[in-house]
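Section 5: illustrative case.
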């Protein structure tokens, strides 16, 4: 498979349960490239700190964001990264192809329940939006209009 030299990082974003991890894993395997799963990094950091993910501080989130930016900025090889807030985290970096996954809320809810989630997808979305507001409210809007593809999963 060939890939444009204009983009060396494929950034897959979208709400919870839109298929980001699955698509990133399959794409990484197909292309034979490294994949960064931001949610897994977050869960790993929570384990290290012996805290539940919802109790992680803004500083921990911003530290992981900085690591992700540095990882994406090193464009020595094609890479894939997936996460909910990548459009904010990677804003302003060159060489990023943003792919936004969307999915019907009912389907996302089924996927969420299949994971054994205790809450609803609506509650998860609300929590994610509150975190987005907390972490990124002061940032200028990103200018990604020319490098976003959107797929309904």
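Designed sequence:
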């Amino acid at each position: 498979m060939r890939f444009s030299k204009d983009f060396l990082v494929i950034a897959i974003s979208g709400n919870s349960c839109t298929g980001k991890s699955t698509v990133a894993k399959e794409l990484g395997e197909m292309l034979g490239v490294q994949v960064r799963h931001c949610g897994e990094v977050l869960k790993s950091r929570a384990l290290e700190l012996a805290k539940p993910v919802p109790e992680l501080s803004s500083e921990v989130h911003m530290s992981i964001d900085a690591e992700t930016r540095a990882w994406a900025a090193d464009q020595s090889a094609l890479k894939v990264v997936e996460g909910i807030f990548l459009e904010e985290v990677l804003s302003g970096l060159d060489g990023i192809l943003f792919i936004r996954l969307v999915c019907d809320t009912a389907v996302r809810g089924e996927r969420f329940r299949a994971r054994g989630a205790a809450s609803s997808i609506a509650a998860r979305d609300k929590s994610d939006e509150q975190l987005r507001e907390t972490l990124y409210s002061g940032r200028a809007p990103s200018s990604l209009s020319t490098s976003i593809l959107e797929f309904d999963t």
